[in-house]
Amino acid sequence: MDFQTAVRKCFKDFATFQGRAPRSEFWWFMLFIFLGQIVFAVLDGLLFGRAHFDAGMGFFYYATSGGPLGTIFSLIVLLPAISVGVRRLHDTNHSGWWLFISLIPLIGSLILLYFFISRAPDAEPEANRFGPPVV
């Protein structure tokens, strides 16, 4: 699955919490969110003066305090991100309720990252309890 197909599918199935999502669909959509956050942070900084360059220990960085465009983008991608996360967990033969483990600081996010990265169950071409594999 390529970048455009993954993003279109995630927005088309924005409230579908059943079925499975392959690794490529999940990670392409996460890249889309990451790039979108960068673009809207820069736009918020340019249009609303909510950002500035600052100096750290031997480096410069772009600091932003949030803005309306980034907030709107985050709200738009929130439900599709949750649904593709649930479907990715289904692909690894885990319940979507495992998303709540990310509420445990550090350890929860690492466990969830392991589930999102894992390959073993989705490498098998047979169906699991959440449905047939998505090609």
TrEMBL record:
Pfam families documented for this protein: DUF805 (PF05656)
Keywords attached to this entry: Membrane, Transmembrane, Transmembrane helix
GO CC terms of this entry: plasma membrane
Lineage start: Bacteria, Pseudomonadati, Pseudomonadota, Alphaproteobacteria, Rhodobacterales
Organism: Paenirhodobacter populi
Transmembrane segments: 26-47, 59-84, 96-117
Protein name per UniProt: DUF805 domain-containing protein
Coiled-coil region(s): none
InterPro entries in UniProt: DUF805
PANTHER family: INNER MEMBRANE PROTEIN YHAH-RELATED, INNER MEMBRANE PROTEIN-RELATED-RELATED
